Amino acid sequence: MPDTAMPDVTRLKFGVGQSVPRQEDPILLQGRGRYTDDITLPGQLWAVMVRSPYAHGTITAIETEAAKAVPGVLGVYTGADLAEGGYGPMRCVLPLKNRDGSPLRNIERPALAMDKVRFVGDPVAFVVAETKSAARDGAEAVFVDIDVLPAVTEASAGAAPGAPQLYDHIPGNVVLDFHFGDSAKVAEAFGQAAHVTKLSIRNNRVVVCAMEPRSAIGEYDAETGRYTLHVGSQGVFGLRGQMANDILKVPVDKVRILTGNVGGSFGMKASAYPEYLCLLHAAKVLGRPVKWTDERTGSFLSDQHGRDHEVEAELALDAEGRALAVRLTSFANMGGYLATVAPLMGTGNFVKNVQSNYATPLIEVNTVCVVTNTSPVSAYRGAGRPEGNYFFERLLEQAAHETGRDPIALRKLNHITDAELPFTSSNGSVYDSGDFSALLEEALEKADWDGFEARKAESAKKGLLRGRGIGNFLECTAPPMKEQGEIRFEADGTVTIITGTLDYGQGHWSAFAQVLHTHLGVPFEAIRLMQGDSDLLIAGGGTGGSKSLMASGAAIVEAAQLVIEKGKLASAHMLEAAVGDIEFTRDGEGLGRFTIAGTDRSIGIMELAERIRTANNPPPDLPTDLNVRHVFGEAPQAYPNGCHIAEVEVEPETGHAEVVRYMSVNDFGVMVNPLLVAGQAHGGIVQGIGQALYERVSYSEEGQLLSGSYQDYCLPRAGDLPDFGFESHASVCKTNPLGAKGCGEAGCAGSLPAVMNALVDALSGFGISHIDMPATPETIWRAISAARA
């Protein structure tokens, strides 16, 4: 592997460590972005899905003749039509095992339900027409006869005796009975504990609420037998593999995935959905492109939801207050089908993240994953990472309250110390770096912890309760998979980075360009980024799990070194010198130059690229360009960590709660672009506040979605939020070339416990020691009323 150490250069204007604005912002703000719904192809048709109005039932008939007679309708398709195409199902890809060693009971989901419907919104047919309005009229004319069956919406209820059964091959609705840990040792630790804290915690289900609803266009080329899907995604390389190998059952070179701008995803757009096969099938049958764009109600019904766990959390302490063991016993709601990574959040990611930055010697996680008559659940910003941190922080705060200990001192007592690093945790993770107690101290100082009592008194004068809360966190990012780092010098003088992650709001263009500018010295303003065309990729792990910079960034660093090696060969010929005498240097503006050592003879990298591209009859042993296509190998996961401190005011007569102060101090390792990192942290914090105080998916007993629009589902707005303090207390990650730790999901991990601990502190005068998310005004008011009674 080439040397990938950070170059010894002065702080470049556009180099690593600078707060450079996002390159794409002017484009998006001027309306020049290109989202899927912006695309109109020649001859394009429209599709509208027909969805089940019932949560559970047997399909007895689907009548389509009336729909086919609607003017403009060209096709009406059901599961039987798709079955004739020989397509494969969607299924969970995780090789998880039950506690007895048997494999997970998987579910092979067809694109359209054929025997039963299993949630309100389950697609059963679709209509294709010349216009969207005609397709909508046709969809309304499809009659689906369903014998309604009893429904179940809660995971614990789904696993209870006598619950309605969703699948014949899944007795008790349990797809996975997961276990991690040494039960005997954990039981012994709890038996010997001086104190045990127990909490029943609800991790509420949320709607993902991406700004851009899902949209896709399917094309088929009859001459080549090739499918093209225009779609918002989190990575075109992985989606192509799923569509080709698992669903379409064709070689991967027969499928092309194209993704332009993406208006948010947070995990939800990572994998295939039923609509994608439907569009490609119709395009093949009708010989024309077919487009579908969801509406917001359809998004609420059919997009994968997030979270939804019922957890019994326990913490054992010795007489000094040191944690002996933590145990989670949970029900995890999978929804009506198993999404691609559905069980991950409540199983492996609970295991990896519940420890946080504490030296707890024993962990046990027991999770029963249950199918219910609800929308499928999958990854949502953090995907089990924020929850794991939340559980432990609430346990520590409650343990401090029950034992009369100072919660700050209790945290420090249990922190992993500098002397213990690298630290191998009881879940197998190896923490390479961190400064946990010092970071906590800095957060307390920046948050003006000591000034709280004065602020609390001011709130009391207004009739408000004020509380403060700490949210320590450490999360295990997803480990970077093989990732492409291609650098291409274009004829127009630009330089293109091609990589397999995908930007859906993170700001990759600027950050990746900063890495390339720092390590290769090409002009920042000349750098372009290409991520959304699967035809250009030979590897790609997509974006998710806070790993993009560690994956694509490392690939770019290594590819830059390979460009330098090619450049030395070419410049030696141009400068008439020996290759060993060529040095790669930078000029006063940080631009790369190849120089003959000890002389002033040199050539700039951009000039060199142009000269060798246009050279006549170059020697056969010299490169004809500086282009490099490189694949970065896998790397260990990283461990971003930090401490968030929130203050909350509560109006006791109405139950209204508001976050009024917020500070976070974070260890994200080397920050390539602090401005973008702060923005990512802010976004995660807001989503955490939303889950803590506002957001709740609610179903009726019959499985009807009661919170199916923004009239019934609350998101925080700017006026609901305080200014966010953001500070860095970095320790360099030692397991990737950039020293970065990832930041995309950390805001949620710190905000959930900080806000909920602050709320409990505000309500502690009523004897309230726990309240579940979302702590809506009604929930808080009821808790206060019950405490007063």
TrEMBL record:
It comes from the Bacteria. Residues 30-150 form the Aldehyde oxidase/xanthine dehydrogenase a/b hammerhead domain. The lineage of its organism: Bacteria, Pseudomonadati, Pseudomonadota, Alphaproteobacteria, Acetobacterales. Pfam families: Ald_Xan_dh_C (PF01315), MoCoBD_1 (PF02738), MoCoBD_2 (PF20256). This is Xanthine dehydrogenase family protein molybdopterin-binding subunit. The keyword Oxidoreductase applies. The keyword Isomerase does not apply. SMART domains: Ald_Xan_dh_C. Keywords: Molybdenum, Oxidoreductase. It comes from Paeniroseomonas aquatica.
